Structure formats: structure tokens, C-alpha cells
Fold this sequence. Notes:
The chain has 296 residues and is mostly beta strands. The chain is 2% helix and 44% strand.
Amino acid sequence: IDRALASQVTGICSFAFQVATAAIDGTIISLADTGTTYHLLLRFNTDRTLSLVRGDGTVLATSTAMLTNTVWAWIEFKWKIANSISASDVVVKMDGVTILDLAAATDTQNSANAFAGRLVLGANSFEPNNNAARIYDDFVLMDLTGSFNNTFINESRISTLYPNGNGNANQWVNQAANSTNNYLSVDDPTSIDSDTTYVGSSTVTETDQYTYTDTDVTVTSIKAVVLTHASRKTDVGARGVTPVIRMASTDYPGTEILLSSSYRVYQEIHETRPSDAAVWTKSDVDAAQFGMKVST
């Protein structure tokens, strides 16, 4: 997995991780310049210790703590790209315990640019023929800005909720040319089925909303709500949609997205509830409706 970053200087990656291949080393995360120059890598070694390595191959630190093959570990990797970092700028935690903490003045920058433009999970040019089996889950990337989610979040889970009923507004038309039980046309559990099932509208302001399955009974806190949808336009003009959250009897529109003619997956992150900018609660999410509005 190779994702572009917006010239990000600092961040925290939090995720569940396990390795299944014995007696082989490999990379967990690489932070690169905008091209192929790597700044900083988090790697596992043959003895399952972890190392922080600068992109020129210099090993900056190695843990005494070790992964266990085929056993999940919760990894949190706080990083900064700079010629001279401060204390606690680059830290690795495993299952809540700090196992690596680079010293002040360590150089984590391997090019003229003091930022990461790419984040790579898994193998890279350091190991082009390495087939070490690596499994990731519940991956979260934070940029350390703002008042929420700007530090370690500890072990967390990403739970996917699916539409399970009609919401307040049912104005879009589904593949059967009606608006009956539209939620059944947008509840694809694992993949996009293209135009086999869908809802759509060409009328600005028309809205479709759905109720969703409840969060798990074990949920005690919610770090963010992410609205995810796969959408496209069907005409040549500009066409935009806006995610909408409905809480109580009020609709809260998000940010408009201008669509292309091919399906793409879009996400909008809400770290706080839109009604009052307070943290989400389980009851907030369970009672809310989510949907889309034609905005252009």
C-alpha cells in the first residue's frame, strides 16, 4: 500500500500488526520523500525485534521487545522528519509500552525536503524480493494538529456500520426506478457492485438518508466517525454531492465532493459530532442517520 501525504512533517500511525513468516526480516512502514527517497523506516528483524532505520540504511535504534509470529500486536509509531529532532519526537509503542524513543538531535531526514510525501506499508526498495507475510488491521494515521486525536490513541478498533433502514429523506431513485427501501441498494458489505445496485438523483438538494446498525455493545469511546461512499456522475457537466449527518431533527451537511465519471471511494472524517463539536458518544452514533445530498 502506497499513499501520498500532503507534505506531512509529523504524524502518528496506530494499527494492529502481525508477521507470519519465520526467520526473515522486513519493513512495516516507510516514510518517503515525494519520490523514491526514503526518510525513515520501521522494520522488524529476524529475531522479531523492531528497528528504526534512516533511508540511507543507518540503524537509529533497535528494541529489546520482540514481536511474536502470528500474534497480533498494537503498534503506535510517532514520527517526525527533520535533520535534528527533539526528545520524544520519534517514538514506537507496542501494546501500550514504549519500546523505542529516539534521542534529541537524531537526524531522520534523508533528502532536502523535511517532510514525508509518501507512506508505504510493507515491502519497498530495501527488500524488493522479500515475501514476508505482513498483516495490518485498524490502521489510523493522525497529523498531530487540532484539539482531537493528536497523540497516542492506544488500542482501538475500526468498526464498519452498514445501512439497515430508510431514514428521514428518501428522494433518490434506485436501480428499480423507485425509492422503495433505498438502503438495500447501498449496503454492499465488501465491494462496490458498480451499477448492479445504486441510488441516484439529478435534482439539486434532493437527499437520501439511512439508519445504520448500532455500534458494538463493548464500545466505550469513539475517536471519530468516517462517512464512506462510492459515487460517480453520469453526465458531462459538473456534479457534486455532500455527505449529510442527521442528529435529532437537524441535518448537518459536510463538504461537497465533485464527482468523476468513474466510481471512486470518498471519505469524510468527523472527529466531533456536528451538532456542538463535542466528542461522539455511542448513543449519538447509534441514533444518527447518514446520507447524501445532491449539491451541484
